Model the fold of this input.
Amino acid sequence: MSGDWDELADSYLHGLLSPEETAQFERRLEQEPRLHEALGKARRRLALIESALPPAESSEALVRSTLARVDRADRQRYVRRRRLAGWFMAPIAAAVLILGLFHYRFANLAASPISLDVYGQEVWMPGSEAAMHVRLVNRRTGHPVAGVPVFVELRAPDSNNFTPLAEVQTDANGHGSPMFRLPDWNNGVYEVRVRALLAEGAEEFVRPVRLQRSLRLFLSTDKPRYLPGQTIHVRGLALQQRDSRPVAGQKARFILTGPDGQILQQSVQETNRFGLAAVDFALPATVTPGRYRIACTVDETTSEVTVAIEHYTLPKVRVTISTDKTWYRPGDEAVVMVEGKHFDGSPAAGEPASLEISLPGNATPIFQQKKLLDADGRARFRYQTPRYSGHHPSRFTSRVGVPRPVGQVSITVAISEQPMIIAVSSFGGAQPRDLPRRTAITLRMPDGEPVKTRGQLKSGNRSYPFETDEAGNAALDVIPPIDNDLVQISATAPDGSRVEQSMPLTAAVALAQVILQTDRRVYRAGSTMHIEALGPDGPLYLDFRRDGYTHRSATIDIRNGRAESAFDIPAELHGSWTIVALRAVQRFEPAARVQVKVEPANALRIRAEFDRGEYQPGDTARVRLSLADANDQPTPGAFSVAVVNEAVFFSWTADGVGDSGGDFSWSGDTYIAKQAATTELREKRLELVGAGWIGLGAFVAVALYAWLWASVRTRYVLILHGVVGAIFLCGGVGYLLVSLFESKQANQQEALRQSVADAPARGKSASPPAASPPRTEDPKSPSTSTVDGTTPTETLLWRPIVVTDESGNTDLVIPLADFPTTWRLSAQAVTGDGQVADIEKRIRVLNQVK
Done:
């Protein structure tokens, strides 16, 4: 309250009160002692102020000078602030501009739309011919890039220079098929580079490939299964992949591996001048039954064969099964004929035979019957086939078993309402309905045999006659019906009946739908192969492969759904060939393939001359084996001969044999790699630009904070400091939590990926041994014995390397066993120039010569 009295007294002395307030103050002064005391204090303060004033006022000049200096100082401070603001804002504006330009540039960074697509193989043979496919396409517009030179080069790992292999120019489809001869370099990994020189720069595709002197390695044994204690006879033949000449003087390593993958025996032999090497693996009597692998390795090529070691009993009866027809109509009576013979050729009279018939997908027999074989070793079973409706044939399987050590034999027969199966495919894409489409017609018997016949296709009011070839195929141009896609096809079946069927004529629009066929399946080297392709219009790329290697390539254009091409087969390229048709959609993709066999121009022939037609137990058979070329001229060479009991092979199913050459193809393009590299570059550069934005923002914030600290009251700076600090704190904590969550997710995904990647290895390491085939007898039961109680001979003769004389002849003396049976003589021959041939003959041993 005293502060109010003091203030009121000061206002009174300084004349700041109104007249009314002054009169009121004076009245109260007499009544309020405290106001009187405050007035005294105010007078003393006023006296002190007046005593501090100069004795005289400053001059007008001094005042003006002082004001001028103050004004000049204000102007200088304003100029300095503007200069500082300019110096501060100019680099900030420049930084914002630069960062903005970089941000726009990298945010819109995209790969070049030109893609160089390459399709080749990862394994090449040194010194041989090879080929690949290249294609240039604009991925943005989908248009091919034509007229561009493309170079194929190869570089060794210890060299900085590429060796040119081929140069091609892309055609109207942007495609090129460079063919080249590889340098005769050592085995190893090399680098192939494919470069396309465009006006805007070079497109380059680089990939490692392996040069490997691949061999054709043939591995065989005397028989497919063995008893414990027997000897496995193994023979290997090594030929050059390039020219089929024998590989002489090379180390051949033979390895016998048990069912558990453990190596049991191994041996190293040297190939002779005919590329032959052989070894014997003696099995102990206590060997574990199962599937055993035999591998032979020459250089870096390995061939494997699997044999069965098991307790078995040789069958005494050979059973064959046949039907009176190759197919039946529903409800027809099927006659199943069974014939049993001993292995010496005599009828198995009186042996019981059982027949079981089942349908696909149903293991339970729908018919069972038992009979005794008659005096001729034959029996007939009659069965009424099931009834069903449908154009596609059904099937039934007949199994016959004889309760002697023989196992089962079976035959599968088709059931069909129609005597002929018709299939139709139309090509030409989404073209107008008034234009013809290339149409393929295939006629088959219900048992799958092709039908060569004449027929007619009706499409609306139009009729198109056709005639199928030996393969049951016909091609013609058909205008589809206006109102629907149904066409009527009629043809004469082999039994003379007329088959008519309505089918949809739906155009195949997928590029991968291609039918590839050749005029024959077997050719002679040096002849011409005619190829026909049916499919959607566009280029079709052909690879001619032998043993997985591409030796030739070609391009054909399908127009109106059809294309034809002729390929001259080189004289030196013979063997099994696979023709692969490729279509370039997003990249090169196989669309169809067909296999053909090319026989050498000078085919090797084997003749076997026996001294007698039939023998008695204990006799000696004399055989002359002769080699001759296609002109019947004697040719020297070497034989591998095995004489094995025919009963060993009966009721035995060998493992399936796949493509010996494999498929070493790879496909790649530059666009995917460029796109991935561009995406990675864009992300990294945007991260740097983002860091620049953050740095610029921090610099501006610090500078603004300093200016506020110097120019504004402290409490406002503190408030701003608290708000900004809270924002950064919350943002930092949120960023940390998000980073931890993303890191956890990344770790989980990596763990999942690793577990998936490791699964095959774990499955392989933990896989159980291969199962043994079903035994025909109890393993503990004794084997079939001869009269003296010993195990009958299974391998009578094994001569892995028998060299002929200069006339191509060799004589064999074969002491026959003392029991009646039929022996299988298998002979494989090879000449010095790599020609191979094989032959099988039967040696019949009877109790009594007929």
User: Anything to note?
Assistant: The helical segments are 2-13, 19-31, 33-52, 60-107, 670-711, 714-765. The mean pLDDT is 78. The chain is about 20% helix and 40% strand. The first strand starts at residue 114 and ends at 121.
